[in-house]
Hints:
Elements: H1 18-30, H2 38-42, H3 44-51, H4 55-82, H5 85-95, H6 99-103, H7 109-123, H8 126-137, H9 143-155, H10 158-168, H11 174-196, H12 213-216, H13 225-231, H14 235-245, H15 250-262, H16 268-274, H17 276-299, H18 304-325, H19 331-346, H20 348-357, H21 362-395, H22 397-415, H23 420-447
Helix pairs in contact: 1-8, 1-9, 1-11, 4-5, 4-7, 4-8, 4-21, 5-8, 5-11, 8-21, 9-17, 9-20, 10-16, 10-17, 14-21, 15-16, 15-21, 15-22, 17-19, 17-20, 18-19, 18-20, 18-22, 21-22
Amino acid sequence: MTTVTQPEGNSRAKIKGRWRSAFSLSLASMLDNNEGTGFITAMFPIIRAQMGMTLGALGWMAALPKMIGVIFGPFWASVGRKYNRKNVLIFATGFWGLWAIAIGFAQSVWALFLLVAISLIGASASQPLMQELLMDLFDDKERGKAVSIVYGVAGMFMLPLGVVNSWLSTMDSGWRYGFYAVGILSALSGIVIWLFLDDPGRGASDMAMEKVEAARKEEYGLVNIQEVKELFKIKTFVLMLGQRMLSGHLLFLSMGVVYMVDVLGIDLAQANLMIIPFYAGMLLGMFMFGFIGDWVHKKSPKYGRIVTIQSIQFIYAILALIMLTGNFENTSTYTFIFALMGFFGSANMSVNRPIVAAVVKPEWRGTAFALFVSVFEAIAWAIYNIAAGKLGQIFGLKPVFVVVLVGIMLVNTAFITLLYKPYAKDVKALENEMESRRQALINQGAEA
């Protein structure tokens, strides 16, 4: 017999244990595919001296997590549809994460690339599966807040990381110790997910039901090309993919420390300390903008989140322009601007994930987030980092940063205007679909 809890009146039942499950995902988020090369970029001057890695090679290394994600992000999303999502996460981010320890033993640039690539195969599972689970744990009114808190908690890891990187940069093998620690933390993340995550089933939050046993069953097979084609019929989703391709702010996250060393002439230890305000700004932005986005969405369901994400892109471009064109003698001025850049740069995820979830069916969300983060963001990240590495060797990093952090972000701002017309229509279509499913399950429960 199918057990269904129907909300009374207009109240919406909440998924029991949703916050416990959400927080269990935070540790995995700390170790996602963006962290795979974090120690390498932070310690690049040391590795350059030890192994002869060029700036161009660093660009390829910084792009590697996203390049791996293009293939394996959709792969893990597909596997998560057919098999238990919780078990897939435990294997991919917990057990597989032990490969990070092997990275610390690399003795050449080629060995470093190979071991990082192997490690990232598993790490690429975290984002599409985690984001799909979050959307099932929380309804549309709470999704921005949920993303903010879960990723904000994960972002707290970045604050002490700057201090740790500064300390490790004083040791010849400091970057190796960093990877040993990442491997151990990856195993820990698998244990935490095993103990505390409860998969509510696809669509549980959309149908406003506290407990729908039928929704917990894995009724979907591997992703097929027809479903991908259906996704690309959703205009809002297609436009969000384009918006993600124009996310030039990602470059500073991967090459900010190198910029400070090569362009501003700051020593590595100080650069790793100066990046801490950037991470602090990211943390604050992650926490705040989910609440801000949900509040604006409540005031204007049709356009609130679109206005918010468009404003974020524009403000970031202006801040980057000030940082790149200013000639500040006091390094504290740079750290203040870095903090603001981190604040507005990290705000995107608390707004764009709910936008995607609001127009995509639950059973397609894993695929949608795999395309959004692991493919299209990955392509953008790879292009920006590889181009920055190659062109930075020829022209220097400063003009490259001006084009990417300012020019492309202004183009992004203008591009988002295209979302205003189709978004409300696509949201309404999904709401009607989920209400029909909800009524069908209620009727099924009444007849059983």
